[in-house]
Design a protein that fits this description.
single chain, 290 residues, alpha+beta, Cyclic Phosphodiesterase, Chain: A, 5-stranded antiparallel beta sheet, 10 strands, 29% helix
Amino acid sequence: MEALRATYGDDDSSDSDSDHSPPLSFPANSNPQTEETLSSALPPPPVSLLHPPNSLGSLDYLQTGQPSRVRSFPHVEGNYALHVYIPVFIPSISKKEMGQFLKRVSSVVPNLHVVDIDIPLNTLCKEEHKLEQVALGREFHISLGRTVPIRVHQIDSIVAMLPQKLQFQKRYWIDFNKWEVFVNDDRTRTFLSLEVVTGGLPEITKQIQAVNEVYKLHNLPEFYKDPRPHISLAWALGDVSGSLKKVVEQETKSSAFRGSLQSRICTSKVGGIECKIGNRTHIICKSPDQ
């Protein structure tokens, strides 16, 4: 039991999705150098190195006092957050047009933040390469089940059952066809998302059903009755779905994304399924050709 807690995180962070960096350490046979020693041995670095072209610049993005995302269930000692999902990466060919769309939406709805890293979207929109790199260049997730708290004794059973239910037969493509707005269950967050409407929907639906079977066996709440697979790119505090939907509809009509169910905003090939429990990520299955 103690070994499991050590692997998945301590109680203070057990149902959090955040990882913690290990403390900085020195080799056993070395002596930490003082500031005086370092400053006398080395000249100061060029100013240009402080903000290289590919960096995110200063921490001005992370403004103090900005709203942050909160867990959807209360912290309980010994609980670990479970999330089963398909990892998704946006192809480079789609980033420019998607970035322009986000920029236009953000100019009308300025309180949007990038999902997970919580940087204000309108701040990133000032520099196109940072918008594509930060807002669109990371890993996104299509949820196959609700994010729920589980107990330590359930972990091994869930990790063992998921691969049995989710064995891959073949890889498939996912088409993200539609910009959509979603609100979380307690209506404290609104999300700007890309929804899967056609290509890949039957396969994802079957995988959601398989995850539901594992959840039911562990007395966990099943996924939504009529699932709408999607990835979320930005969020706003509270329920602003009405105003955000209006902006999205207007921008969709005036942009290259015409809202047709047959059009593709971007496409991604599914290579596997993962689940995160506490601070640890498990590879549930990979496609045979990977």
